[in-house]
Amino acid sequence: MALLSLNYDVLSAIVEQTDPSSALKLSMASRGAYDLGIAQALASVTLSRSQRQVSAFCQFLLADPTRLPQLRELTIESSAFGVARHIEFQRTADFSAAAELADVLRRARRLRRLSIACFEDFLAHEPRIGDAICALPELVEISLHNCGQLATGVLSHLRGSLRKVQFTALFNRKLPTFFHRLQSQDRIETLELAHLDLSDGSQPYGEVHELPHMPSWDIACPVRWLQLGLTAYHYDTAIDIIRRTTPAILSLPVETKVDATFWTRFVDVASGVRHLELCLDEGKVHKLSWWLVRLCVL
Q1: Pairing outcome for strands 275-280 and 73-76
Q2: Cα–Cα distance between 298 and 279 in angstroms, integer?
Q3: Confidence check: pLDDT of 87 > 60
Q4: Is there a contact between 194 and 167 (Cβ–Cβ < 8 Å)?
Protein backbone atom coordinates (compact mmCIF):
# COMPACT_ATOMS: atom_id res chain seq x y z
CA MET A 1 0.00 0.00 0.00
CA ALA A 2 1.33 3.45 -0.95
CA LEU A 3 1.89 5.79 1.97
CA LEU A 4 -0.27 8.58 0.56
CA SER A 5 -3.19 6.20 0.06
CA LEU A 6 -3.76 6.09 3.82
CA ASN A 7 -6.55 8.10 5.41
CA TYR A 8 -5.56 11.80 5.60
CA ASP A 9 -6.21 11.97 9.35
CA VAL A 10 -3.96 8.96 9.89
CA LEU A 11 -1.23 10.50 7.75
CA SER A 12 -1.52 13.80 9.64
CA ALA A 13 -1.16 11.99 12.97
CA ILE A 14 1.97 10.21 11.70
CA VAL A 15 3.57 13.40 10.39
CA GLU A 16 2.89 15.20 13.68
CA GLN A 17 5.23 12.71 15.37
CA THR A 18 8.14 13.56 13.07
CA ASP A 19 10.73 16.28 13.60
CA PRO A 20 10.52 19.44 11.42
CA SER A 21 13.55 18.43 9.33
CA SER A 22 11.99 15.10 8.36
CA ALA A 23 8.67 16.79 7.67
CA LEU A 24 10.42 19.24 5.35
CA LYS A 25 11.99 16.39 3.40
CA LEU A 26 8.58 14.74 3.13
CA SER A 27 7.03 17.95 1.79
CA MET A 28 9.58 17.96 -1.03
CA ALA A 29 8.88 14.37 -2.05
CA SER A 30 5.78 15.06 -4.17
CA ARG A 31 2.87 17.43 -4.66
CA GLY A 32 0.65 15.12 -2.63
CA ALA A 33 3.08 15.07 0.30
CA TYR A 34 3.62 18.83 0.31
CA ASP A 35 0.51 19.82 2.26
CA LEU A 36 1.10 17.02 4.74
CA GLY A 37 4.71 17.90 5.50
CA ILE A 38 4.89 21.68 5.25
CA ALA A 39 2.76 22.42 8.32
CA GLN A 40 4.98 20.29 10.58
CA ALA A 41 8.11 21.64 8.88
CA LEU A 42 7.06 25.19 9.74
CA ALA A 43 6.26 24.35 13.36
CA SER A 44 9.88 24.81 14.47
CA VAL A 45 12.35 26.78 12.34
CA THR A 46 16.01 27.68 12.91
CA LEU A 47 17.69 30.28 10.68
CA SER A 48 21.48 30.24 10.81
CA ARG A 49 22.94 30.84 7.35
CA SER A 50 22.57 34.49 6.37
CA GLN A 51 20.19 37.42 6.01
CA ARG A 52 19.48 36.13 2.54
CA GLN A 53 18.08 32.97 4.11
CA VAL A 54 16.06 35.04 6.61
CA SER A 55 14.67 37.15 3.78
CA ALA A 56 13.72 34.12 1.68
CA PHE A 57 12.00 32.50 4.65
CA CYS A 58 10.03 35.65 5.42
CA GLN A 59 8.93 36.04 1.81
CA PHE A 60 7.82 32.40 1.74
CA LEU A 61 5.64 32.85 4.83
CA LEU A 62 4.16 36.17 3.71
CA ALA A 63 3.28 34.81 0.25
CA ASP A 64 0.55 32.57 1.69
CA PRO A 65 -1.51 33.63 4.77
CA THR A 66 -2.15 29.97 5.69
CA ARG A 67 1.55 29.41 6.43
CA LEU A 68 2.01 31.91 9.24
CA PRO A 69 -0.31 30.15 11.75
CA GLN A 70 1.89 27.05 11.46
CA LEU A 71 4.95 28.84 12.91
CA ARG A 72 5.23 27.97 16.61
CA GLU A 73 8.98 28.15 17.31
CA LEU A 74 11.54 30.44 15.68
CA THR A 75 15.29 30.64 16.37
CA ILE A 76 17.59 33.14 14.65
CA GLU A 77 21.24 32.43 15.45
CA SER A 78 24.12 34.89 15.34
CA SER A 79 25.43 33.35 12.12
CA ALA A 80 22.22 34.46 10.38
CA PHE A 81 23.48 38.01 10.93
CA GLY A 82 26.90 37.18 9.52
CA VAL A 83 28.44 37.02 12.99
CA ALA A 84 30.86 34.18 13.65
CA ARG A 85 31.65 35.22 17.23
CA HIS A 86 29.41 37.08 19.67
CA ILE A 87 32.05 39.69 20.49
CA GLU A 88 32.29 40.75 16.83
CA PHE A 89 28.64 41.51 16.21
CA GLN A 90 28.91 45.32 16.52
CA ARG A 91 31.38 45.42 13.62
CA THR A 92 30.02 42.79 11.28
CA ALA A 93 26.29 42.27 11.84
CA ASP A 94 23.99 42.35 8.82
CA PHE A 95 20.38 43.35 9.52
CA SER A 96 19.21 43.75 5.94
CA ALA A 97 16.20 41.44 6.44
CA ALA A 98 15.03 43.14 9.64
CA ALA A 99 12.00 44.85 8.07
CA GLU A 100 10.74 41.59 6.55
CA LEU A 101 11.19 39.77 9.85
CA ALA A 102 9.20 42.48 11.63
CA ASP A 103 6.35 41.90 9.16
CA VAL A 104 6.45 38.16 9.89
CA LEU A 105 6.48 38.57 13.67
CA ARG A 106 3.58 41.01 13.49
CA ARG A 107 1.47 38.30 11.81
CA ALA A 108 2.79 35.18 13.58
CA ARG A 109 0.02 35.19 16.16
CA ARG A 110 0.54 31.56 17.23
CA LEU A 111 4.27 31.83 17.90
CA ARG A 112 5.10 30.31 21.30
CA ARG A 113 8.91 30.21 21.44
CA LEU A 114 11.28 32.84 20.09
CA SER A 115 15.08 33.11 20.23
CA ILE A 116 17.03 35.97 18.61
CA ALA A 117 20.79 36.64 18.74
CA CYS A 118 22.44 40.08 18.40
CA PHE A 119 19.17 41.49 19.69
CA GLU A 120 20.18 44.94 20.97
CA ASP A 121 21.55 46.22 17.65
CA PHE A 122 18.86 44.33 15.75
CA LEU A 123 16.22 46.21 17.72
CA ALA A 124 18.01 49.54 17.21
CA HIS A 125 18.07 48.88 13.47
CA GLU A 126 14.37 47.98 13.27
CA PRO A 127 12.29 49.16 16.30
CA ARG A 128 9.17 47.46 14.89
CA ILE A 129 10.73 44.15 15.96
CA GLY A 130 10.15 45.05 19.60
CA ASP A 131 6.52 46.10 19.04
CA ALA A 132 5.83 42.90 17.11
CA ILE A 133 7.30 40.69 19.84
CA CYS A 134 5.38 42.49 22.57
CA ALA A 135 2.10 41.87 20.76
CA LEU A 136 2.53 38.07 20.44
CA PRO A 137 -0.43 36.68 22.43
CA GLU A 138 0.73 33.05 22.84
CA LEU A 139 4.45 33.61 23.55
CA VAL A 140 5.56 31.52 26.55
CA GLU A 141 9.33 31.29 26.02
CA ILE A 142 11.76 33.97 24.87
CA SER A 143 15.54 33.95 24.50
CA LEU A 144 17.24 37.26 23.77
CA HIS A 145 21.02 37.48 23.38
CA ASN A 146 23.55 40.34 23.26
CA CYS A 147 21.09 42.61 25.05
CA GLY A 148 21.13 46.06 26.65
CA GLN A 149 18.64 48.71 27.74
CA LEU A 150 16.52 48.48 24.59
CA ALA A 151 15.97 44.77 25.16
CA THR A 152 14.87 45.26 28.76
CA GLY A 153 12.23 47.67 27.48
CA VAL A 154 10.77 44.85 25.40
CA LEU A 155 10.53 42.57 28.45
CA SER A 156 8.31 45.02 30.32
CA HIS A 157 5.71 45.22 27.54
CA LEU A 158 5.33 41.57 26.55
CA ARG A 159 1.72 40.57 26.16
CA GLY A 160 2.13 36.81 26.48
CA SER A 161 2.36 34.94 29.81
CA LEU A 162 6.00 33.91 29.82
CA ARG A 163 7.10 30.66 31.42
CA LYS A 164 10.78 30.81 30.48
CA VAL A 165 13.15 33.74 29.91
CA GLN A 166 16.75 33.52 28.71
CA PHE A 167 18.61 36.82 28.68
CA THR A 168 22.24 37.37 27.72
CA ALA A 169 23.60 40.86 28.35
CA LEU A 170 26.37 42.71 26.56
CA PHE A 171 29.76 42.30 28.21
CA ASN A 172 28.65 42.04 31.88
CA ARG A 173 26.54 45.16 31.62
CA LYS A 174 24.70 46.46 34.70
CA LEU A 175 20.94 46.70 34.13
CA PRO A 176 19.54 47.76 37.52
CA THR A 177 15.94 47.88 36.25
CA PHE A 178 16.02 44.33 34.89
CA PHE A 179 13.77 42.70 37.50
CA HIS A 180 11.48 45.71 37.59
CA ARG A 181 10.92 45.18 33.86
CA LEU A 182 9.93 41.58 34.54
CA GLN A 183 7.53 42.42 37.36
CA SER A 184 4.44 42.10 35.16
CA GLN A 185 5.47 38.55 34.18
CA ASP A 186 4.30 36.69 37.27
CA ARG A 187 4.23 33.19 35.75
CA ILE A 188 7.92 32.76 34.93
CA GLU A 189 9.12 29.30 35.89
CA THR A 190 12.65 29.34 34.44
CA LEU A 191 15.01 32.31 34.38
CA GLU A 192 18.44 31.97 32.74
CA LEU A 193 20.76 34.98 32.83
CA ALA A 194 24.25 35.32 31.37
CA HIS A 195 26.87 38.12 31.41
CA LEU A 196 24.50 40.27 33.45
CA ASP A 197 26.12 42.17 36.32
CA LEU A 198 23.77 41.83 39.30
CA SER A 199 26.28 42.92 41.93
CA ASP A 200 23.93 45.79 42.84
CA GLY A 201 21.82 43.26 44.77
CA SER A 202 18.83 43.27 42.41
CA GLN A 203 16.28 40.57 43.25
CA PRO A 204 13.37 38.97 41.37
CA TYR A 205 9.79 39.45 42.47
CA GLY A 206 8.09 36.37 43.94
CA GLU A 207 9.31 32.82 43.45
CA VAL A 208 11.58 31.66 40.64
CA HIS A 209 11.11 27.98 39.74
CA GLU A 210 14.45 27.28 38.04
CA LEU A 211 17.66 29.27 38.27
CA PRO A 212 21.20 28.39 37.13
CA HIS A 213 23.94 29.50 39.53
CA MET A 214 25.38 33.00 39.06
CA PRO A 215 28.40 33.55 41.34
CA SER A 216 28.25 37.37 41.27
CA TRP A 217 24.61 37.53 42.40
CA ASP A 218 23.69 37.38 46.09
CA ILE A 219 20.18 36.09 45.45
CA ALA A 220 17.88 35.80 48.45
CA CYS A 221 14.51 34.49 47.28
CA PRO A 222 12.76 31.11 47.07
CA VAL A 223 13.92 29.00 44.11
CA ARG A 224 12.13 25.78 43.19
CA TRP A 225 14.98 24.27 41.14
CA LEU A 226 18.56 25.37 41.75
CA GLN A 227 21.33 24.16 39.44
CA LEU A 228 24.79 24.86 40.81
CA GLY A 229 27.79 25.02 38.52
CA LEU A 230 31.32 23.95 39.45
CA THR A 231 31.49 23.82 43.27
CA ALA A 232 35.05 22.54 43.72
CA TYR A 233 36.95 24.88 46.08
CA HIS A 234 33.70 26.87 46.56
CA TYR A 235 31.77 24.66 48.94
CA ASP A 236 31.21 27.44 51.48
CA THR A 237 29.62 29.53 48.72
CA ALA A 238 27.44 26.59 47.65
CA ILE A 239 26.19 26.09 51.21
CA ASP A 240 25.40 29.80 51.49
CA ILE A 241 23.45 29.83 48.20
CA ILE A 242 21.41 26.77 49.21
CA ARG A 243 20.61 28.40 52.54
CA ARG A 244 19.38 31.63 50.92
CA THR A 245 17.33 30.03 48.13
CA THR A 246 15.72 27.07 49.98
CA PRO A 247 15.32 24.98 46.79
CA ALA A 248 12.95 22.03 46.49
CA ILE A 249 15.03 20.54 43.65
CA LEU A 250 18.81 20.78 43.73
CA SER A 251 21.46 19.80 41.20
CA LEU A 252 24.79 19.70 43.06
CA PRO A 253 28.22 18.90 41.56
CA VAL A 254 30.52 17.38 44.19
CA GLU A 255 33.87 15.62 44.50
CA THR A 256 34.26 12.24 46.19
CA LYS A 257 36.90 13.76 48.48
CA VAL A 258 34.39 16.12 50.15
CA ASP A 259 34.50 15.38 53.86
CA ALA A 260 31.77 14.85 56.44
CA THR A 261 31.91 18.49 57.55
CA PHE A 262 30.41 19.62 54.25
CA TRP A 263 27.63 17.01 54.32
CA THR A 264 26.74 17.84 57.92
CA ARG A 265 26.37 21.50 56.97
CA PHE A 266 24.47 20.49 53.84
CA VAL A 267 21.88 18.54 55.84
CA ASP A 268 21.35 21.59 58.07
CA VAL A 269 20.66 24.02 55.20
CA ALA A 270 18.92 21.69 52.73
CA SER A 271 15.94 20.64 54.84
CA GLY A 272 13.54 21.77 52.11
CA VAL A 273 15.16 19.73 49.32
CA ARG A 274 12.82 17.02 48.02
CA HIS A 275 14.80 15.92 44.96
CA LEU A 276 18.62 15.86 44.98
CA GLU A 277 20.77 15.28 41.90
CA LEU A 278 24.44 14.69 42.73
CA CYS A 279 26.86 15.12 39.83
CA LEU A 280 30.37 13.78 40.41
CA ASP A 281 32.62 16.31 38.68
CA GLU A 282 35.68 14.08 38.51
CA GLY A 283 36.72 10.88 36.76
CA LYS A 284 37.56 8.73 39.78
CA VAL A 285 35.00 6.03 39.05
CA HIS A 286 36.94 3.48 41.10
CA LYS A 287 36.10 5.52 44.24
CA LEU A 288 32.37 5.53 43.59
CA SER A 289 31.44 2.49 45.71
CA TRP A 290 33.51 3.74 48.65
CA TRP A 291 31.97 7.20 48.33
CA LEU A 292 28.39 5.87 48.22
CA VAL A 293 28.96 3.90 51.42
CA ARG A 294 30.21 7.02 53.21
CA LEU A 295 27.34 9.12 51.87
CA CYS A 296 24.68 6.65 53.03
CA VAL A 297 26.09 6.74 56.57
CA LEU A 298 25.72 10.51 56.57
Answers
A1: unpaired
A2: 17
A3: no
A4: yes
Nearest-angstrom CA–CA distance, 205 and 42: 36
According to the 3-state scheme, what is the secondary structure of 84-124? CCHHHHHHHCCCCCHHHHHHHHHHCCCCCEEEECCHHHHHH
pTM of the full structure: 0.68
Rounded CA-CA distance 187/140 in Å is 9
Question: Is residue 10 classed exposed, middle or buried when 0-12, 13-18 and 19+ CB atoms within 10 A define those classes?
Answer: exposed
Kindly report the backbone phi and psi dihedral angles of residue 208, in degrees, each rounded to the nearest multiple of 5, phi listed first.
Answer: -100, 135
pLDDT digits (tens, 9 = 90+) for 169-195: 876 567 767 777 777 777 787 888 777
CA distance 243 to 220: 9
For residues 252 and 220, give the distance between their C-alpha atoms in angstroms, rounded to a whole number: 18
227-263 pLDDT tens trace: 876 666 678 888 888 888 888 888 888 877 777 788 8
Domain ranges of the chain: 42-206, 208-298
Q: Are 94 and 47 in contact (CB under 8 A)?
A: no
Give yes or no for a contact between 142 and 158, defined as CB atoms under 8 angstroms apart.
yes
CATH 3.80.10 corresponds to the domain 42-206: yes
One-letter amino acid identity for 296?
Answer: C
Angle, CA of 191, 196 and 202, to the nearest 5°: 75
**Looking only at Cα atoms, what is the longest distance across the chain?**
69
Please state the rounded mean pLDDT for residues 60-86.
88
Q: Which residues of 118-128 are buried (b: 16+ CB within 10 A; e: fewer)?
A: bbbbbbeebee
